[in-house]
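During the first year of the project, the team set up a workflow for recording each protein of interest as an amino acid sequence followed immediately by a discrete structure-token representation. This format lets reviewers and collaborators read both layers of information side by side without switching files. As required by the reporting guidelines, we include two representative entries from the current panel. The first entry is reproduced here exactly as it appears in our internal archive.
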Amino acid sequence: MKGGCIALIGASQPLGARIEKGLLEAGADVVPVDDRTGARRVDVRHEPNGIVAIASGSPAAIRAQARVVTAVARALGPNVRLVHVGSMTVYGGREGVVDEAAPPPADLGPYAAAHLEAERTAREHPNHVILRPGCEYGPGCPTWSERIASLLRAGLLGDLGAAGDGICNLLFIDDLIDAIDRSLREPGAGGGTFNLAMRSPPTWNEYLVRYALTLRAVPARRIGARRLRLETRILAAPRRALEMATRRFGVLQNLAAPAVTASLIEACGRRITLDVTRAETHLGLRWTSLETGLSRTVTSS
């Protein structure tokens, strides 16, 4: 990636900011693009020869960003490679082993539907690559590492019993950045769609317990169905309110445990496994082991 100049759309969101950091560390010249206006940084040294769009945030934000992607791609021309980083949520409630050819189900919620629309917009660009990551974890990953760590330390997550028997399609953040790099450089990747997650992923229970052990947040608690109902149906709303207040005013942040949301517990029970054969075959990707990924996550925190 060294020497390349990339127009990056989506760096205003936490995942996009983490990817920007990784791209810079990999030697790329990153040109942030405003998610709303499409304006590029004024001190551009080179014309971008690649576009990376990180679709994240609310459904409205994802749709607004897609319009910016269209404008930037048109301005840079049809030969510039566009790498769209979306989400596995486009598979909706599907279960079992799912590859990229699986048609989108009819039961998509607003967030997944926005991701699917953003994918369709990206495909309008002649030279595109679509990436569908699983759960991005690692140093600086707010959703599937930092938030989960806070919940484990607070004793609000652990072994969830039957509620945690779903498949955790983990993707180490360095592997995602490697996938973006290869998608920009690999000529044969153009027009392709690729699932991204470690092969033979753990269950959510396995991830949570192993993460707790690595954090030394032990013993990992067994969280029963009654406790989960209490957290998701009654305590989630006040916990979210307290979390927002501490973030806004910058006080007592270490005392405000995150909420255990119904969407998180629903994800922990889903038995979907991403088929990553295409990413391995066409992009040459190899995956960081869970042991290594967790160790790097905790060591860097």
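The second entry, processed by the same pipeline in the following quarter, appears below.
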Amino acid sequence: MKTLLRGIQLNGKPTNILINGNRFESVNAPDNAYANTAIECHRYAILPAFYNAHNHAAMTILRGYADDMPLQTWLEDHIWPKERAMGRAEVYEGSVMAINEMISSGTVFFNDMYFSMSRTATAVREAGIRAAIGVTYMDSYSDKMKASKEERICNWMEDQDSMIQITAAPHAVYTVSGENLQKLYRLARDHGRRFHIHVSETRKEVEDCMKAFGMTPVRYLDKLGVLGPDVIAAHCVHVDREEWDILAERGVTVVHCPCSNMKLGSGRFPYEMAIESGVRVTLGTDGCSSNNNLDMREEMKFAALLAKLNGDTSLLSAPEVLKWATVNGAEAFGIDAGVIADGKLADAIIVDLASPRMRPCYNLISNWVYAADSSCIRMVLCNGKIILDKRS
């Protein structure tokens, strides 16, 4: 099945883009290229889709439930008690809401950490998007549940689905023992899984880790031998220069969640050290209960502005933060996408250049990062299929 996007803007110039199956066959196709479907796109521009590298999708059902409080109070006194009363039906409902919201704002992949993962997987398959779904783990789980989680890391039926991958997802150093972190990392490594964990999100987490182990979370994880190129470390707000060097040397991917970090008062991400270290940085929304939306374009703008807060207006430019939200996220999860180029998987956002927020358009990327919102989106493509169409 071939689709031709005729006259669409790419890198500031009109072109014809031919999609063959689930990949871009040509981003400079002739006008008369054979296609089963041709779409006139002269008022549109094409951009890479978003890859949300840290999320708790089903928490969308708790949007607005507990706001304006510190992380530990929010988590221990409100969220965890509420989650204990949630069942599989609520997880499915929350996941469906989350996925619909993500698609509407241009996200075609999310890296999830929640429970009842099979219900989230069902919602992902129904929507036709991509996901990495975490096998969550905490020491507070029963022995039976922990054994079941470990078995799922080793053998889970979703392995046959090319759009879904499984991760080992221990919550954090303060909820999972060193012994269990090592065991989970071995299982993940032995079965080709990524390892997804919260790291140094708050000052309290760092202080508690220092009291318990005599070192900061990154140093502790490194001592345990559980840092490597298969690790996705969420937040990393309170990470010093030496720790950034450790993360870079180990090839760890870091997920920056600016809106959640600001809302929970976690602190400013150390952009200067992160960028200087050469670590691959991605963007994530975190969950709707701490954000309170799943709009990756909004995360780009907040990240770029927060970076400049200390006075360096050149820090984290629009093209660089777009890279964090797109190709960096795709690469971190082994997805051959994130750029609009021949041979790449056909994931994309198509925006309307006539939208009030896109006019005038001196610089498409600047407009997309700083001026636009999801109302500018006309189509979203995932794996070569149009999963959102607002052209009417």
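For the second entry, the following points were noted during internal review. The first helix runs from residue 71 to 84. The CA atoms of residues 8 and 41 lie 5 Å apart. Both points are flagged for discussion at the upcoming steering committee meeting.
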